Amino acid sequence: MPFPLLYGVAWLAYLLLYYVARYRRDVVRSNLERVFPEKTSAEITALGKNFYRHLSRSALEILKARCMSPAQFSERMQLLNPEVIREYTEDFTRSVIVLTIHQGNWEWMLHGAIAELGIPIDPVYKPLHNKAVDDIVFDIRAQFGSRPLSVDESTKDIVKRRKEFRLFVMVADQSPTRHDRSYWTEFLGQESAFFLGAEVIAKMTRFPVVFAQCRRQKPGYYTLEFLPVATPPYEKEGHAITEQYIEYAEAAIREQPETWLWSNRRWKRDRAVEEAREKAEQSPAS
């Protein structure tokens, strides 16, 4: 499907998602109202519609990736400062952890970076509940030699292969479950829990950490910028890596909010409730 036709279909998909299926409209509006309390109801509605338009376009772009060449990705995903990565990897012995968020087109980022840098890149992913869709996305991520790793196997695999040269990419803005090791802090004005896996892996392997920010320029065209997060040696205590990631993530979302994945239930957990529950569970039985 040529791109002009693809975006025509994307417009129809937007109409179906927003007006007919009403896909997670309550979740999106609730998230937007929490993060942007200063906006009027009309402004929230407009921002929500812009999000659904972008979601429809990016979903079809991801499917389109299955029949795109590296040259096409180089044309449509421009790396603004690849020297940041090359500085860390110039001796071909030190791997890098790249953290990013669900913004822009996070799947195209992978292929654009591979096309430009020529470095093996392994994305860490959370398997989707729909097996058929998960298989399609896995194939898209693996099509240029990447080796996708599920979250459950990632830590063991990365530590085991820490002497191999590659980039490890983690999209770390999803909310962890109560049973995951979490770090609570303020994010977009909300008490939010974050995975600590990337920070734990960085400290274990002594890999440098970089943030990747994707910006949409126009339909089908993006830029990718790398921002240094941290370099070893790392302090054992504290969460400086996670805090810097969160700072970059929030700035990126506020810069181009309509391109972030607002349909996720990001704030379904309640810190006060969970801490009270944990305190009760730890107290001795009367």
Query: Which shape, going by the Cα principal axes?
Result: globular
Task: Tell me the total number of β-strands.
Answer: 9
Question: Span from first to last CA?
Answer: 67 Å
Strand content: 15-25%
SS summary, helix count: 11
Protein name: Acetyltransferase
Keywords: Acyltransferase, Cell inner membrane, Cell membrane, Membrane, Transferase, Transmembrane, Transmembrane helix
InterPro entries: LipA_acyltrans
GO molecular function, one term: acyltransferase activity
3D structure, described in words:
Pfam families: Lip_A_acyltrans (PF03279). This is Acetyltransferase. The chain crosses the membrane at residues 6-21. Keywords: Acyltransferase, Cell inner membrane, Cell membrane, Membrane, Transferase, Transmembrane, Transmembrane helix. This protein has 286 residues and is of the alpha/beta class. Helix content is 49%, strand content 18%. The protein has a domain at 70-263. The protein contains 11 helices and 9 strands. The strands form 2 sheets. It has a 7-stranded mixed beta sheet, sandwiched between helices. A two-stranded antiparallel ribbon has the order 6-7. Helix 7 links the parallel strand 3 and strand 4 (149-150). The chain is globular and about 50 Å long. The model has no long low-confidence stretch (mean pLDDT 91).
